[in-house]
């Protein structure tokens, strides 16, 4: 993917980390993924164009906001990311099984697209393939 993006002249408007909300452990694999994204970006400003999408937010499921905070706090501790603000990394909550009929999910999907569309495409040629 990195090789492809390094040759992609159009740049990227947004990147999303997608997490199943029912897997509410902030696991080592998610931490490694976030660290790897930070290494690839090689620029903390790219986090301002990254969002976290929590899937399977359906029915009476109550999301634990501590999980969201743990993820965002982890990002802020990465190299060069200490000056980012939590509100610069938006989180979205979707019911991925009822996305066609769930009003809240439709609204969140609109927010996701608005977030991506408002961002200027950033070049990807400097992504690090380490």
The description of the largest β-sheet is: 3 strands, parallel
Q: What is the residue-averaged pLDDT?
A: 82
**Portion of residues within helices:** 25-40%
> Quaternary status of these chains?
single chain
The termini sit apart by 12 Å
Net shape: globular
As a percent range, the share of strand residues is 5-15%
Radius of gyration, in Å, reads 15 Å
Structural class: alpha/beta
**Helix-strand topology string:** HEHEHEH
Low-confidence stretches: none
Q: Note the total helix count.
A: 4
Characterize the structure shown.
There is one protein chain. The chain is an alpha/beta fold and 130 residues long. It is 36% helix and 12% strand. It has 4 helices and 3 strands, in the order αβαβαβα. It has helices at residues 2-6, 28-41, 65-76, 103-118; strands at residues 15-20, 50-55, 91-93. The protein has a 3-stranded parallel sheet with strand order 1-2-3, with helices on one face. The chain starts with a helix and ends in a 12-residue tail after the last helix.
């Amino acid at each position: 993917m990195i090789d492809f993006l390094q040759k992609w002249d159009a740049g990227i408007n947004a990147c999303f980390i997608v997490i199943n909300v029912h897997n509410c452990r902030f696991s080592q694999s998610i931490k490694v993924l976030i660290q790897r994204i930070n290494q690839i970006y090689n620029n903390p400003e790219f986090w301002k164009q990254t969002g976290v999408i929590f899937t399977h937010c359906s029915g009476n499921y109550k999301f634990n906001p501590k999980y969201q905070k743990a993820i965002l706090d982890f990002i802020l501790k990465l190299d060069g990311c200490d000056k980012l603000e939590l509100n610069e990394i938006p989180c979205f909550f979707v019911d991925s099984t009822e996305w066609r009929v769930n009003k809240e999910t439709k609204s969140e999907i609109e927010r996701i697209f608005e977030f991506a569309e408002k961002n200027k495409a950033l070049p990807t040629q400097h992504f690090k393939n380490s």
